[in-house]
Design goal:
172 residues; alpha+beta; Aminopeptidase; 7-stranded mixed β-sheet
């Protein structure tokens, strides 16, 4: 397995993983699979914000999973906080792909001088919660009944990892 920064050339493989998560899980809280044209603005936002899209690929160039992050909230004072996502292709869950991706996301966020990395995890996703705890994330809050999918209310748990940096944060 190899870590590679993804580009628009990987959009179809990323979309396949996202759409599978939409229709089969509560990892993504959309109801309807995204069309291919949704990837153009998605990548544009990642590029504009200098947010990485990191993929794990097998030896044949197949994307096994990807991780990324973006703004936590839109107001300027949140500029040192980012919220990340990690998605693993269904047949490769439980094989270390998520672990590789989360480690890479942490390294990249730290290198970009962010202060807080935030995960929003559906409360029954025990594997994701365990993985984040393994990397030192701490639970920091729950929004009960934040979403509704598959005929039930979903609780959203937040977990965070706080870095030492930036050395000289500024307002504005």
């Amino acid at each position: 397995m190899t870590l590679i920064d993804c580009s628009r050339a990987h959009a179809d493989q990323i979309l396949a993983i996202l759409n599978d998560a939409i229709v089969t899980s509560t990892a993504l809280w959309d109801y309807v699979p995204r069309p291919p044209e949704a990837m153009t603005p998605w990548f544009a936002a990642k590029e504009a914000g200098n947010f990485p899209v990191i993929g794990v690929f097998d030896g044949r160039g197949r994307l096994l999973g990807f991780g990324t992050y973006g703004p936590f909230r839109a107001w300027p004072a949140y500029k040192y906080s980012v919220e990340h996502s990690v998605y693993v292709e269904r047949d490769h869950r439980g094989h270390g792909v998520g672990r590789q991706l989360l480690g890479a996301i942490i390294d990249r966020a730290r290198a970009q001088d962010y202060h807080t990395l935030i995960a929003g995890i559906e409360a029954t996703n025990l594997a994701s919660k365990a993985l984040h705890l393994e990397f030192g994330f701490e639970p920091c809050g729950v929004i009960r009944h934040a979403g509704y999918k598959f005929g039930r209310w979903l609780d959203l748990e937040f977990h965070q990892l706080v870095f030492e940096g930036p050395n000289r944060p500024v307002e504005g």
